[in-house]
Amino acid sequence: MSEVLDRPTIALHGITTVAGRYVIGPQPALAGINLFACRLRTIGSDNLRVTAPVIPEFGEAVSFNFSRFGELGGRVRRQYQDGFEIDIDQTAARRDRLNDAITSFSERLWTAAADRRKVERSLPSNPRTVIGRPDNWHQPCLIIDYSAEGVAVSGAFQPVVGEVVTVGQVTGEVVRVFDIGFAVRFFERQDPDLVEGLLEAATDWHAAIHHAGAPGPDEAMPHMH
Asked: Which of 4, 150, 178, 202 is buried most, with the most CB atoms less than 10 Å from its CB?
């Protein structure tokens, strides 16, 4: 007589290196409309949280693709200032596969020291920032990665090649547009030790969005039923 055992709940917190993409709603994916880049913050057997440029409505369906964990989907259960969380919609078999992937990935985190290599492009510790145009138009966006010479960005905005934009406090020219965002080449090469700080949103812009009553990055936003 065989015994069926429930797989335990597994969770991995504080992830800063796993990038992915997400699509809001059931419509065909369109860059800058409902297709964006994201960064995984936590993932568990039944839910995940991301940092993202565009935050869907509470209860809205979202589908993800992460190279480490495959395709996942579900509905928004919590909204945060810098992203959102979903309950993962999956079968028992897919939950088991996700558990295996989380376990494998967590083990690799402990043994990755021997595999580390220096790369030119980096992931910022705080990927959310602001993009602006010369006409004083601004909106939130997500940094995919960056170097001393340029930055890749995702947001609800698809510029044309050659357009001048400012990411954080660094101005450059759009040189490439791709499915989940676009690449900006800085007009001047930045100091590698300072560029991450310069890509953060300016203090006055932070003050504008952190108005009274706004939740912090780890505080869930209220929603209407």
From this structure: 150
Q: What is the pLDDT of residues 61-85, one digit of tens each?
A: 999 999 889 999 999 999 998 999 9
Instruction: Please tell me the predicted confidence (pLDDT) of residue 213.
Output: 38
Q: Which of 109, 117, 155 lies closest to 14 in space, CA to CA?
A: 109
Nearest alpha carbon to residue 150 among 112, 176, 125 = 176
Q: What is the pTM of this model?
A: 0.79
User: What fold, for 11-115?
Assistant: Thrombin, subunit H (2.40.10)
Cross-strand partners of 39 = 19, 51
Compute the residue count for the chain: 225
- Burial code (b: 16+ CB inside 10 Å, e: under 16) for 164-186 equals ebbbbbbebbbeeeeebbbbbeb
Cβ atoms of residues 7 and 96 within 8 Å:
yes
